[in-house]
Design goal:
Distance between the termini: 44 Å
Number of domains: 1
Number of helices: 15
Order of helices and strands: HHHHHHHHHHHHHHH
Structural class: mainly alpha
Length: about 325
């Protein structure tokens, strides 16, 4: 009994380490490039270009820099820029809610789109889904708040960030700490999945979600990792779905749908709370994002079903290298 437990723990640790290293190969180079772009003020230029687009969703052009920072770096960096620009702009709760929803859909794109690519989704498809998804959601929310006259009171942010040490040494220490945290979270998630499978909790969750999964055209195999990605984040859920992609247990259509859904709506608890700290309203950053994501994926599945496999493979999906020794199932189209 003790030997079996130790063997399971060793296998769990090895799987978590391999999955983490696979992620680090993506994250580390992108983090370095992002740091260099920040030093070269490339994010500022992107923010300037986004200025006119922000006006389409009812936001001041200065908020383009906030979204650009969140897209290229991460949500926290975008929050820091927001707190430096927002004073004096007299932003309403509706405007901050629109901005928050757009940030939640499209952020950390260099890292997260490469994770999606590793899971079998074309880079251009992921970027287009998230960028146009963010803009369309922001526009819908802007029109809704404008027509209903809701949330027009002046926004009050609840967070003032501490000064960030700009040195390379501080950045390196922060990145090393992030790598350790990512490994520990992946280890915990894999242990949780193992326990859920042993206790049949995964089966129960799948049965409860089967109506939604069927509506979205996803099979039962996609449920556990998709749920983790939506609740805890794309980096962590993405790591597990990469593992599923390499195992061959999920079809290419299931993989694409799961990654697309996680791209539009992930980390629904932590990230939502971060935007609430800035003053954004739950009607946009939680309910609006969730309902929009489910509807968008529903329509996307309808479109995918009409596409020939040749076009699907050329523009949406890409081959995934199978894990040595795995026996992938024959690919099949998702059913709506």
């Amino acid at each position: 009994m003790l030997f079996s437990i130790l063997q399971a723990l060793r296998e769990l640790f090895g799987n978590a380490l391999r999955t983490s290293l696979m992620l680090f190969k993506i994250i580390i180079p992108i983090s370095i490039v992002t740091r260099l772009l920040l030093q070269l003020s490339a994010v500022d230029y992107l923010g300037t270009l986004l200025g006119p687009i922000m006006e389409l969703v009812g936001l001041p052009g200065q908020m383009g820099l906030v979204w650009a920072t969140a897209m290229i770096i991460n949500i926290y960096a975008g929050m820091v820029v927001f707190t430096s620009l927002a004073p004096g702009l007299d932003l309403t709760v509706a405007q901050v809610s629109v901005l928050g929803s757009m940030i939640l859909v499209a952020h950390s794109l260099p890292v997260e789109t490469l994770i999606a690519r590793k899971a079998g989704t074309r880079l251009r498809a992921t970027i287009l889904i998230r960028l146009f998804g963010a803009l369309f959601l922001g526009w819908i929310l802007h029109i809704f708040y404008q027509l209903t006259g809701t949330l027009q009171q002046t926004n009050l942010a609840l967070w003032n960030p501490l000064a960030v040490d700009p040195t390379w040494s501080a950045w390196l220490m922060a990145e090393m700490r992030n790598m350790l945290i990512i490994f520990l979270i992946i280890l915990t998630l894999m242990a949780l999945l193992m326990i859920m499978k042993k206790l049949k909790i995964s089966d129960l969750m799948t049965r409860l979600l089967s109506p939604v999964l069927k509506m979205l055209g996803m099979s039962r195999e996609a449920a556990p990792v998709t749920i983790i990605g939506m609740t805890l984040g794309l980096s962590y859920g993405g790591a597990l779905i990469i593992q599923e992609a390499q195992s061959g247990r999920m079809s290419k259509h299931d993989l694409f749908i799961a990654v697309a859904l996680m791209g539009l709506c992930h980390s629904i608890f932590e990230d939502t709370l971060l935007m609430m700290v800035l003053g954004a309203h739950l009607s946009a950053i939680f309910w609006g994002r969730l309902l929009f994501s489910l509807l968008a994926i529903f329509l996307l599945v309808k479109l995918i079903r009409k596409l020939p496999d040749e076009l699907f493979d050329r523009y949406l999906a890409r081959p995934v290298a199978a894990i040595k020794g795995s026996e992938p199932e024959a690919p099949k189209k998702a059913k709506a």
